[in-house]
Amino acid sequence: MGLREIAEAVWTGDEPASSWLAGNGRELHEVDDGVALVLCFGNVMPVATGEGLVLIDTSTVFAAPTIHATVRTWSADLVHTVVYTHGHLDHVGGVGPFEQERVDRGESPLRVIAHQAVPERFDRYKLTRGYNSVINQRQFSLPGFTFPDEWRYPDLTYRTNLEFEVGGVNFSLHHARGETDDHTWVYLPQRRILFPGDLFIWCVPNAGNPQKVQRYAADWAAALRSMAQLGAEIMVPSHGIPVFGADRVRAALEDSAELLEALHRDTLAMMNEGARLNDILHAVKPPEHLLGKPYLRPMYDDPEFIVRNIWRLYGGWFDGNPAELKPAPTAALARELARLAGGARVLADRARELAAAGDLRLAGHLAEFAVGAAPDDPQIHAVRAEVFAARCQEEPSLMAKGIFGAAARESAERSRG
Q: Which residues touch 411 (CB under 8 Å, ≥6 apart)?
């Protein structure tokens, strides 16, 4: 299928959006005259100008050689400028081969443009490299993954908006807090082509992520509303397939905004009434009619996690439960509950019963307490492995699957003694 045929099938739901969210960097499509898309885990969008290519995002360092070779099948022009939509690993790692190409030809260095908070992100990554290795291993089921320790810092940063021109093509950059505090969306006004970065990702917005820093649901929704007013004819996200047609672009952006606004409104309403976080998590739900859209399914993030991030932004880390303010050690609590129940295996047996009855949330608590009370018991680990494998299978979001799957694998290994 051609790109527009694929886009049509994905928009209508005939083709799952997930099939196009993790390309290998070898597939290039021309989106419009002089604008291409390389599908990868973090797309790369080359724009041809009279002075060379401008790249919107560069994907990962791991895919960099492949992406460079793929772009060269489309254009031999050197890269003049790179724009980072934000500083995440899958957007900033592929500059190297294009930069080396200019050096090899004796040309001046290329220019990298990003929001002013991107360098601060890179500094933070250096401080937390070990932690980021661990959470990516867990989130994406990548045992042994090591987070990079080198980053290509931008040459030019901006605060709110930046307009620039390269070879007769005008680029309009706009800052927005959303998935990150350093996000940029890009618009080509002459062509009416929008590059939203990760502000649109063909699924529920990644505004919750339980293992990452703060997200900004209300600001994200405002950015989506702003982009929806542009009248863009084509939207090329940094993950997934483009959206063609002004009406569809507007609908995708406005529906995504509505989902975030609903979660934000309802969470704040309960917070203002004094509700605890646990109560809010079980009460606030996104509008059902939106979750049925092909571009708003919870296959990566989860609306429940977005509620947590809204709480974290406004309410801090205390969840309203006074016992959790200065808690006992988890192992001590587990041992006491096991003593009251009649032993850790009693807890484990009850966890298995609850899982069989479909109450996986409660089963997860009891399985954790059982292992906490008897961390060296292979039989209890076997139960924990069963419970979290079941939780992994039931969850639609990759993030929940990653965490539950890691727990299941850990206990499966320990159950073998």
A: 371, 381, 382, 384, 385, 388
